[in-house]
Amino acid sequence: MAGVSVATVSRAVNGSGPVSLETRAIIDRVINESGFRPNSIGRQLKTARTHTIGVLVPSLKNPIFADAVNGIECAAQNKGYNVLLASSGYSTDRESSAVDTFLNSRVEGLVLTVADEEKSQALSSLSSAGIPFVLMFNPVKNSSYSTISIDNRKAAFELVCQMLKLGHRRIAMIAGKFSESDRSIERQAGYQDALRHYGIDQVLITEVGFENQDVSEQINALHEAKNPPTAYFCSTDVIAIATIRALTQIGKNVPTDVSVVGFDGISVGEWLTPSLTTAVQPAEQMGEWAMQHLIERIDEDVPVKNLVLPHQLRQGESLVNPPI
Questions:
Q1: Among the four residues 139, 154, 204, 246, which has the most C-beta atoms within 10 Å?
Q2: Which of 121, 52, 51, 129 is nearest to 86 (CA)?
C-alpha cells in the first residue's frame, strides 16, 4: 500500500534503520488509514523475545507500591520493555499463582516483593526456571538474589528513639502481620532495639492485617488498659492513618493527647492534619533501579547485586512531647 518493501516498513515501524522523511510520512499515512497494528505475538515467535517484565507487589492499596511501580514503568519504557502488573494481597499462595502466570506469559524477568524471602515458594519457582528477578523492599537475606531495600531495622530504631527522646515511655507498636511481611518483622526488631537502648522493658505490640486497616478494636483495648500508650509506632503510614482515625473516634486528639508515627513516607501523610511523622523510603527510586538492574541482567548478564538505599526521617506534626 505504501509502495515500499517489507524491510523499509519494518525499519520505519521499529526504528531499526534509516528511512527518508518522505517515505516515513507515506508509511505513517498508510498505517493511520488502514488501522494497522504490529503483531506482538508474531514478533515474539520470530525473535524468541517478549520484552515483557512481570511486576508483583503485595498491594495497590498502599501508595508506597504505586510509587515504586511508577519508577519501574518509567525505566521499562526507556528501555523498550513492557510491564505486566499483579498484586498478591500479602498472600503467599497468590504470590506463587502470579509467578506461574508470569512464567506462562513468557516474561523475561520479574521485579517483585514477597512476604518473606527465606520462605518464598515463588522465588524457588523462579530460581528453578532460571528467570532473572530483582527483589524490592525485602531486606537482604540471600545474597544470591538481587535486592534493593532500605535498612528497615535501623530506620525503625531511629524513629522510635526520636519518640523516646521527647519523653515517651509507653509506646505501642501497631504492626502489619509478621507472617505477611518480613519488613514488619525488621521494624519490630528496630522498635525493640530502641526500647532496650533506653532501658524500657514494656513492649506493647499489636498485629493487624494489611488488607483490613480498621484498627478500632485494637486501639479501644489499649486505651481501656490501666496505663494507655502516650504514643504509637505504626509499621506503615497506612496503618498510622487508620490509627489516627481510631483515636479520633474515641475522643483522643493527635498529637495533644497521644502521638502517632508511621513508616514509608507516602505523600498523603504530608497533607494530613496533623501531618505525619514517618520514615521515608525512596520508593520510586527503588523501582527505577530494580527495573534498570533487571534489564541489565537480561541484556548484559550483569552479576547479582544488593543495594541498600538511605532512608530519611520526616518530621511531621503528629509527634510531640507526651502530655503532662
A1: 246
A2: 52
Q: Which three cell numbers, joined as nine digits, stand for 56?
A: 508483583
Residue pLDDT, tens place only, 119-149: 899 999 999 999 999 999 999 887 889 999 9
CA distance 253 to 259: 9
Neighbouring residues of 291: CB distance < 8 A, sequence distance ≥ 6:
53, 71, 72, 75, 76, 79, 81, 111, 134
Question: What is the residue extent of each domain of the chain?
Answer: 6-38, 48-151+282-312, 152-280
CATH 3.40.50.2300 fits 48-151+282-312, yes or no: yes
pLDDT at res. 38: 64
Query: What CATH number does the domain located at 152-280 have?
Result: 3.40.50.2300
Query: Do 48-151+282-312 and 152-280 share a fold?
Result: yes
Q: Please spell the DSSP secondary structure of 255-318, one letter per residue.
A: TTT-EEE-SB--THHHHSSSPPBEEEP-HHHHHHHHHHHHHHHHHH-PPP-EEEEPPEEE--SS
